[in-house]
C-alpha cells in the first residue's frame, strides 16, 4: 500500500485530499503543521508528500529543504500544492528540488496525474490490504 503524507494547514483541503487518496487505496498521514509533517515523515517514511507552500509555522520551502538534506527522506517525491502560480514560486520550488505542483483548486484527475507521474510504476496501482 502506498503511503501519502499531506502537509496542509487548511483543514477542509487536508480532509478532502485525504478522503480522495484513501478512496483510491492509499494509506494517508496528514497534518496541518510543517514541523509535525517532517517528524511524521522520519518515523513513517511515506512514498509521496503533498505539501502546501504557504503555512503559518514553517513554510513548504523549508519543509522541502529539510527533506532534501535528510538522506532518509531526500528521494521521496515531493509535490507542492499552492494557490499561487507565479513563475517565481515555481522557480523557487524547482531550485529546491520539488518534483511537481498542483495549483489550487485542483480536481482528482490533476491530483492523480501528478502522483502517477512520480511513483514507481511497479507499485501502481496501490493494492488495498
UniProtKB/TrEMBL annotation:
Pfam families: Response_reg. It comes from the Bacteria. Residues 3-119 form the Response regulatory domain. InterPro entries: Bact_response_regulator, CheY-like_superfamily, Sig_transdc_resp-reg_receiver. The modification 4-aspartylphosphate is found at residue 52. SUPFAM superfamilies: CheY-like. Keywords: Phosphoprotein. Gene3D superfamilies: 3.40.50.2300. PANTHER family: RESPONSE REGULATORY DOMAIN-CONTAINING PROTEIN, STRESS RESPONSE REGULATOR PROTEIN 1. This is Response regulator transcription factor. It comes from Pedobacter ureilyticus. The lineage of its organism: Bacteria, Pseudomonadati, Bacteroidota, Sphingobacteriia, Sphingobacteriales.
